[in-house]
Design goal:
The protein is of the alpha/beta class. Helices cover 33% and strands 15% of the residues. It folds into two domains: 124-254, no CATH class; 264-446, 3-Layer(aba) Sandwich (Rossmann fold), CATH 3.40.50. The chain starts with 20 loop residues before the first helix and ends with a helix.
Length: 447
């Protein structure tokens, strides 16, 4: 007799039991959902096979966070073997686990006083699930902004990681592994420029092989990484280098820059710049665009700055415009170069006495080339992003909310998406003042 037939005397039938998606999953997966829910509740990495005991018996130190809603642990101080679940962990060689926010990493990468922040995913590594396409002697280093985001091109990310990837490739070569820098097709040329000693792999190729391990320096947008770095008292590059146990100072000092002689000769023979040199004029480059409008200083300020540079410093000003349409820079009363390839951009920039840009790829290029560079910053924190480049100085807005990094705790408001007051109110005269300091410093260094 069914449950409903027992209620024949009732005016209404007894409600039938609801069979929800969780119940279906329980039946389908034979209890795996129960284990998943327990892991979610306790923040325990469900990919580790070791049994988890009570809180009092947990004496290990592991980092836990969520990837697609699944707790996950890991920091590869050593290479993790493919599909070796027992080896998953932070690499601290500790056999047990604790909740990361109640513990402390012995290498001080995380802990109660060194948190990454709510729902941050600071580091991801993964094991390839296609053994027939796995290259056992290869390690893949993925560009963090490897998706096609509307507010970033990934050029700056690629250049920033160039020295770190080069250093990491040297480190892994000692253990018999070769590193591939994995980037989408739109960043291939920039990756080859930023890491000329490293193999470049096109993520857009659906038939690509995989390395035995895929390492991501982050799995979220860089503004979240920057806030994490600020909480930890480091920089964006410093945070990433620490995650890979790379000496950042050495990496930023010893990397390879390869500019073809053809590109160097092209700009060495530029008549206008050579004439400016004969006249004793400084050559100042500007890159007035950024893919994100909130990181872009208003065009009216850039044009005003050009007039100041010409009148006060008698400078030859050169605009670098990466877009294919030159119309957007027609209002600039100076020399313009549009749509240059990475090597030509580098050769041109090497002729500048000072480079000025938004928080964008061209400012990273200036730092990479060790050219004196000024970065106009409003919503982003220039020190966090650019202090790893010795030649770069951030011209930060003086508004109290500057450097909010899109976090409401730092002063960000919903209406800021319509325009960043911090960068809009940054005056051209402030940037020109820094230009004067940079020119004076360069002149004293060469005297």
């Amino acid at each position: 007799m069914t449950e409903e037939s027992k209620c024949e005397g009732c005016a209404e039938k007894a409600p039938s039991k609801t069979f929800g998606i969780i119940d279906f999953a329980k039946a389908k997966l034979s209890g795996k959902v129960v284990e998943h829910v327990r892991a979610m509740r306790e923040g325990i990495c469900e990919r580790c096979n070791e049994a988890v005991t009570g809180d009092n018996d947990r004496n290990g130190e592991r980092l836990f966070r969520k990837i697609d809603g699944v707790p996950y642990c890991g920091k590869p101080h050593k290479l993790i073997e493919r599909r070796d679940n027992k080896a998953f962990g932070c690499g601290c060689d500790l056999s047990d686990k604790v909740l990361w926010n109640k513990s402390k990493c012995p290498r001080e990468h995380w802990g109660p006083n060194n948190k990454f922040g709510t729902q941050f995913m600071p580091f991801v590594y993964e094991v390839d699930a296609a053994p027939e396409k796995t290259l056992n002697d290869v390690v893949d280093f993925y560009l963090p902004s490897s998706g096609d985001h509307a507010d970033m091109t990934g050029i700056g990310d690629t250049i920033l990681l160039g020295p770190i990837v080069q250093a990491y490739a040297k480190k892994m070569a000692a253990d018999g592994y070769r590193v591939r820098f994995c980037v989408p097709w739109g960043r291939i040329a920039w990756a080859r420029f930023a890491a000329p000693t490293v193999e470049i792999d096109d993520l857009s190729n659906a038939d690509r092989d995989f390395g035995v391990m895929g390492y991501h320096s982050s799995d979220f947008r860089f503004f979240e990484l920057d806030e994490t770095a600020r909480q930890m008292g480091t920089t964006r590059a410093g945070y990433i280098a620490k995650r890979f146990d790379i000496d950042l100072d050495a990496a930023m000092r010893d990397y390879v820059v390869d500019i073809p002689q053809e590109s160097t000769t092209k700009f060495a023979n530029d008549a206008k710049m050579n004439q400016a040199r004969k006249n004793g004029q400084p050559i100042i480059g500007i890159a007035p665009f950024s893919h994100n409008p909130l990181r872009t200083w208003p065009i009216r300020h850039w044009v005003h700055l050009v007039y100041i540079l010409r009148e006060v410093f008698k400078a030859m000003v050169v605009v670098i415009d990466g877009g294919g349409d030159s119309k957007r820079t027609e209002c600039f009363p100076c020399t313009r170069w549009v749509g240059l390839e990475p090597h030509d951009t580098a050769a041109l920039m090497r002729r500048f006495d000072v480079m000025i840009g938004n928080d964008s790829g061209m400012s990273h290029m200036g730092g990479f080339l060790k050219v004196p560079t000024l970065v106009v910053c409003g919503i982003t924190d220039g020190k966090i992003i650019y202090d790893s480049y010795p030649s770069v100085t951030a011209v930060q807005s003086r508004k109290s909310c500057t450097g909010c990094l899109w976090f409401k705790e730092n002063g960000y408001k919903p209406w800021c998406m319509k325009g960043c007051d911090a960068i809009n109110e940054l005056k051209p005269e402030w940037v020109a003042e820094q230009v004067g300091l940079s020119l004076a410093e360069k002149q004293s260094a060469t005297a």
